[in-house]
Amino acid sequence: SGNNFEIIIIDDGSPDGTQEIAEQLEKIYGSDKILLRPRARKLGLGTAYIHGMKHATGNFIVIMDADLSHHPKFIPEFIRKQKEGNFDIVSGTRYKGNGGVYGWDLKRKLISRGANFITQILLRPGASDLTGSFRLYRKEVLQKLMEKCVSKGYVFQMEMIVRARQLGYTIGEVPISFVDRVYGESKLGGNEIVSFLKGLLTLFATT
């Protein structure tokens, strides 16, 4: 790609062999390119971001799921988009242009669409996909947002965008295809939906 990069893998003691595979990749590509930074147990997405940022040496950070739901082929488009508008954040969107979701049942699609629709009405964030996590951040912007965000779980990604708008950061979007994971299970359940609605109302009241 011509871009200098490092891949930081944060593994929270997952039972699926992620750490062992990452160790193999580290041997192949070198510890300067593959940085495995495991943690002993599951401590949450927000703290994983902070943990990863401590080890990141670049000016920009791309955050993505490691199960290939987020395909690496979109990363060059994120970089092009950032350069094109000098954006602080470039967000992958499933709901604009030729973006889409593959492998979800109707219930999951309705929940995701509904969450985005309600959020657009209440918060008017100026971005089309609030709950996705495939994004490029300017490093100092990500650090600032992490200091401001208080949400946990499903609503966390949404708060990142809402706070970004509140702080005047610029956001570009790249349509992406999201493919549901082949292995493992989604963590989205009834408790997460209730937490999302509570978090949404909290954001509505505080932004």
UniProtKB/TrEMBL annotation:
Cofactors that this protein relies on: Mg(2+); Ca(2+); Mn(2+)
Residue intervals of the Glycosyltransferase 2-like domain: 3-145
Domain of life: Eukaryota
Any single GO BP term: GPI anchor biosynthetic process
Enzyme Commission (EC) number: 2.4.1.83
Pathway noted in the entry: Protein modification; protein glycosylation
Catalyses which reaction(s): a di-trans,poly-cis-dolichyl phosphate + GDP-alpha-D-mannose = a di-trans,poly-cis-dolichyl beta-D-mannosyl phosphate + GDP
Keyword presence, Metal-binding: yes
Pfam short name (any one): Glycos_transf_2
GO MF annotation terms: dolichyl-phosphate beta-D-mannosyltransferase activity; metal ion binding
Gene Ontology CC: endoplasmic reticulum membrane
Location(s), subcellular: Endoplasmic reticulum
Record bears the keyword tRNA processing: no
Major location (coarse): endoplasmic reticulum
Keywords, comma-separated and alphabetical: Endoplasmic reticulum, Glycosyltransferase, Magnesium, Manganese, Metal-binding, Transferase
Protein family per UniProt: Belongs to the glycosyltransferase 2 family.
Quaternary structure note: Component of the dolichol-phosphate mannose (DPM) synthase complex.
Protein role: Transfers mannose from GDP-mannose to dolichol monophosphate to form dolichol phosphate mannose (Dol-P-Man) which is the mannosyl donor in pathways leading to N-glycosylation, glycosyl phosphatidylinositol membrane anchoring, and O-mannosylation of proteins; catalytic subunit of the dolichol-phosphate mannose (DPM) synthase complex.
Protein name as catalogued: Dolichol-phosphate mannosyltransferase subunit 1
Native source species: Sagittarius serpentarius
Organism classification: Eukaryota, Metazoa, Chordata, Craniata, Vertebrata
